[in-house]
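The data layer described in this paper is built around a simple, fixed record for each protein. Because each token names a local backbone shape, the row as a whole describes the fold. We quote a single record here, exactly as it is kept in our systems:

***
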Amino acid sequence: MTYQETMKEWQEATLPADLENELKTMSNEEAEEAFYQDMAFGTAGMRGHMGVGTNHINVITVAKVTEALAQYIDAAGQAAKDRGVVIAFDSRHHSEEFAKEASQVLSAHGIKVYRFSSLRPTPELSFGVRHLKAFAGIMITASHNPKQDNGYKVYGEDGGQMIPEAVQAVIDARAAIKDPFHIEKDAAEKTVEVIDALVDDPYLAEVKTISVDKDLIAKEGSALKFVYSPLHGTGQYIGEKALQQAGFSNYTIVKEQAELDGDFPTVKKPNPEDPAALSLAIEYAKKEEADLVVATDPDADRMGAAVRLADGSYQVLSGNQIAALMVNYLLTAKKKTGELPDNGAIVTSIVSSRFAAEIAKSFGVSTFDVLTGFKYIAAMIDRFEEKKDYQYLFGFEESFGYLIKPFAHDKDAIQALVLFAEMAAFYKEKGLSFADGLNSLCEEFGYFEEKTIAYEFPGVNGAQEMADVMAKFRGQKLEEVAGHLVLATQDFANRTQYDRDGAEKEMPQPKANVLKYWLADGSWIALRPSGTEPKLKLYLGVVADSQASADEKLASYEKEMAAKVQG
């Protein structure tokens, strides 16, 4: 079916007034982008612009994908329907509306629904699925995306994002739905139970166990001074409760960013990966001479931070640096108390820094590399629990996602808030700053530096253009980059590593459209199309014996690889 034919079906349907009005004013180019496909499911469900059309998030597309999910649950049997679905939403425009839409579709199928009455973080949704022993979960959020976006994350019964096989079953069911405008809904919501304290209280009780050294917090928790910004999102509610119950009281909330507002008026992007998102919090910190700044994104699954330097300025940390500091603190504390297991393991993504892995190695702790997407970290946790061959200690992705304890099976910025504050107290007690701690680790393990560059491929032809770039790299053998030999090429699409000497070996990860190159100097380069946005991502990771050398090396790799990607 052409986009014009699909658009005509929408024009003939009865739509909500806002969608009908938007449809009337669309240009041909806008119409093609809005109707040429059903919105793709990626690494974490579907995510994109709100508005009219099959390729946008709206009540029609939310009802359609929920109907497909309901059919998948129906096929699993009555027990699955009785276990039900947990639904949560964030502060974005239409999030609560979409959550209710999903509830009514599921209720029409007689599927039990657990829904929060107000916004909650993504990690609490993940915990809620596990705690209530539900069959699935839905989180309405676009995470850290700009204000015009929203999204629909689907979770499996383990509390992790739904596995590929299950997602494909939902996608197939969605494709078979021919009339998305008359999906049955139960306006009375007969199977819907509003939860809140039912999950809040046990979640906060679990978060309380994150603290490694409660005596340290009792001693330094009130002396530590920091600033917290929830970036207009869900952290405002649960983050403060988590900090207070842990024993931290000397912190300031960024007042303007504690207001729940889907326009995110104080930031261009509500993304703690972007240093600009921390600017207002840093202004607060400078006035108060605070030790550090922490910020969580709108659905509180990512945390960013900045730390005070000796001259009174603030250094914004990368996600990889935060993870390295956390791993070092956790393993040091566990070793001190005799709780460091012989079979300990951390889990990270194939595009994250090797910094934390080197630190873990020094403690005799193994590192497992998985595909991008926290569902793969969750799957590894499940594997550890099933086989009992390794004990999970920490998981992270370079994109500011961390999980300390697996009572949630997704990245959890609320857990990270508590542990990061405790680490700051640890350094403060020693008369050191976070910057001192980071520099000490760099001196011991090397200066690791990473960078991610996202190339945008919007519009109807974007996916094909990205595919062409990936095909170009696969078609040419990359021998060297900026004068450094490529020792191995890993093609995750066929799960094969090709060594420079001609040897080939199978890789353990599932198939994925990713290329990764390992260089002779210990650096690495990776290319992958984003699973949630029309972007091709280039990842660069280097290690050197000084910061200046690392910066120089990173710049040279970026320059050469940018020319290859865009050439």
